[in-house]
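[audit] Reproducing an earlier prediction to check determinism. Same input, same settings, fresh worker. If the tokens differ from the archived copy the diff job will pick it up downstream; this log only records the rerun itself.
[audit] input (348 residues):
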Amino acid sequence: MRKYRFRTTRFFNIISLALLLLSSCASEKERACIEKQMQVWDTVEGPTDVKMRILSRNLGAVFSLDISPDGKYLIAGSSRGIVKIWDLETNVEKLSLYQCLSPGVRRVVFSPDGRSFAAVGHNSGSYDQKIKLCDSETGSERIKLENSKDSCTAAAFSSDGKYLVGVDTVRGGVIKIWNAASGKLMMQFHDKGSCVLSSVACSPDRKRFVTGSSIRDMVSGEKIATLHGPIKCPGYLTFSPDGSQIASGHHDGTIQLWDSKNGSEIKSISGHEGRVYSVAFSPSGGRIASAGLDKTVKIWDTAKGLEIMTLHGHEDMVFSVLFSLDGRRIVSSSRDGTVRVWKLANQK
């Protein structure tokens, strides 16, 4: 296992580039060119197979990230109600919404075609909406979701884009399924399991979703299987790329892997000190990234359950982590207000 800490290498001409970027004399074309030149990667003290850059600062606590289906864009949602979208290759900001939802944005997720994103707000307060479906280009609300004023904790699109599933911890475990094209609420029901519904994930085969300790049918909402074993209510859930496994992150610092068909436990992985806020599979499924209360991002071997490396750099708890589509980068966000991109070598 390797642990990396970072020092920043900067060149004096970055200062002059930044000054020109801020100058009112710079044209839009010049600004785009300069922003691309300012992609300076931080270098590692010691091994050189991991590099890191800070994509954005001062956003407030950045609770959630997602990458567009084509792998080109990164979206982030923060405690200040800010939603931003960047081009991952050029580092250029594509969209910035400063009051997407009040008082803050808890979750953001792209639709499977990348044309829309769902934003989930905080559950506190009497605000107009708790979930919105917005246009990825303009940020405007595309469709008004029926009953969108009710509280919502997390949301996920079915892999074919037909449905949007929302879950609610506050109102006793409510599950809602909307038609993503019309915004019509197709069904609403209570989950009667013992776990709070703080996360939801949809399977790659379009047929299932998991929330709390229940695996359910996408169309009927019926329970197919229950995560069973030494179950600890998951704070975060995700399917593997082939849909065969579910990974869950927990308050005690563990990650559990489950068989997605029958809900049986495959293995439990330990290593974080404190809560695991986010877990993500690599595109091949051979690696898992996790983010936690201990301010670290960890990478694990999925089959062996062994820690491969720990990435240090965030100055506060890390809320979200994802692999890029080529598996060679990891993006993470934190309560320290930053979004970071980690460039990895030989990862899939």
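[audit] rerun output stored. Observation attached for the diff report: The chain has two domains: 13-42, 44-344.
[audit] end
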